[in-house]
Write a structure and sequence with these properties.
Blueprint: E1 3-7, E2 17-22, E3 29-30, E4 35-40, E5 45-49, E6 54-59, E7 66-67, E8 72-78, H1 82-93, H2 96-106, H3 146-155, H4 173-185, E9 212-216, H5 219-234, H6 247-255, H7 257-262, H8 269-283, E10 289-291, E11 297-301, E12 306-307, E13 310-312, E14 315-317, E15 320-321, H9 329-340
Antiparallel strand pairs: 1-8, 2-4, 2-7, 3-6, 4-5, 6-8, 9-11, 10-11, 12-15, 13-14
Helix pairs in contact: 8-9
């Protein structure tokens, strides 16, 4: 049996995609359409199916590689199926002369050379930002196909602001995409109705506070992160209130008051809430993380510093209980007393 190559099929309008999981190993016997690996694009994850059945002899890719249409995935020793055998018999029953003759009849000689398709022009313009120009030339005609107009309308883009880079200044889909990306990347200005712009995030070295772990972001998270941050700054926030029966907790708290008095402190429910926050953050570590300055990774923190609101003569402040994960509720209560004094 011959060894054949498995190549990446047509994966749509993507230059390259990331491999996030390899689902095969050398020596595996696979069937037609079995998943070979999982790739991730800007919008979704998808499995790449096997184009044929056989035994995997060699794997040419690994997790983290970037692949595109035609990239070599693996070498496979194909297994002939009954249907494939029948396909092989059919051509052998026909003579070469008859086959060639049939081909010649089906192909018509062109009367003139086929025209070359026009080269795809990449947009190189800098779109006119909405924030810098609040006026639209009513006499300007935007040349765009109906599909481009629908695409722009769905995104809420006024084509009068978009400069086309196609033939005769025709607006291309790339022009609309470049315009939207430029607008999303711009800080909001007074012309756009915003009265402030957030100050830049400082570059913080989190290792000075404790142990950290850097975890790479997936492509989807990188793209969605910028939009989520924009919504966090511009959208109204909601506070959730829940009810809980703390009868047993209150009995336990009162039973520890004597131990607290011996240490010269007062044990309140706040100490228990801080301890509960630490346990919740351990269970969901993403909530105790920060985005790296380059936007490529999450900084997962292995320390837990919990702030609490405190009313003082100088106004409302937020003191921080450091290393709350290393302290019991009585030690946290002592810190609360010292920090709020």
């Amino acid at each position: 049996m011959a060894t054949e190559e498995i190549l990446i099929p047509d994966i749509g309008n993507f230059d390259s995609v990331d491999i996030i999981e390899v689902l095969i190993s050398v020596g595996d016997t696979i069937a037609l359409d079995d998943p070979l690996m999982t790739v991730e694009s800007d919008k979704a994850s998808m499995d790449i199916p096997a184009p044929k059945a056989g035994v995997i002899k060699e794997i040419k890719i690994k997790v983290g590689d970037k692949v595109k249409q035609g990239s070599l995935v693996a070498l496979i020793e194909s297994v002939a199926t009954p249907a494939a055998e029948k396909e092989k018999v059919k051509p052998e029953e026909k003579s070469p002369a008859v086959t060639n003759k049939g081909i010649e009849k089906n192909i018509a000689a062109p009367s003139r050379p086929a025209p070359e398709p026009p080269a795809k022009i990449q947009p190189v313009n800098t779109p006119i930002p909405i924030g810098e120009s609040a006026l639209v030339d009513d006499g300007k005609i935007s040349h765009a196909s109906p599909s481009i107009r629908k695409f722009a309308r769905d995104l809420g883009v006024n084509l009068a602001f978009v400069k086309g880079t196609g033939p005769k200044n025709r607006v291309l889909i790339e022009d609309v995409q470049a315009y939207v990306k430029k607008e999303l990347a711009k800080p909001r200005t007074e012309n756009m109705g915003a009265q402030f712009a957030p100050i830049p995030m400082p570059n913080i070295d989190f290792t000075q506070f404790g142990k950290v772990e850097t975890q790479a972001l997936s492509k989807i998270k990188k793209i969605s992160g910028a939009n989520l941050h924009r919504n966090w700054v511009t959208a109204p926030h909601v506070t959730q209130f829940d009810s809980a029966d703390i009868t047993d907790l209150e009995v336990f708290r009162k039973s520890m008051q004597k131990d607290a008095e011996k240490r010269g402190t007062k044990l309140t429910l706040l100490a228990f809430l801080i301890k509960a926050c630490v346990n919740a953050l351990k269970t969901y570590p993403v909530f105790n993380s920060s985005l790296s300055p380059d936007g490529e990774s999450l900084v997962l923190k292995s320390y837990y510093n919990i702030g609490f609101a405190c009313d003082t003569p100088d106004g409302l402040v937020v003191p921080v209980v450091k290393d709350a994960h290393k302290k019991d509720v009585l030690e946290i209560a002592m810190d609360l007393g010292d920090l709020s004094a």
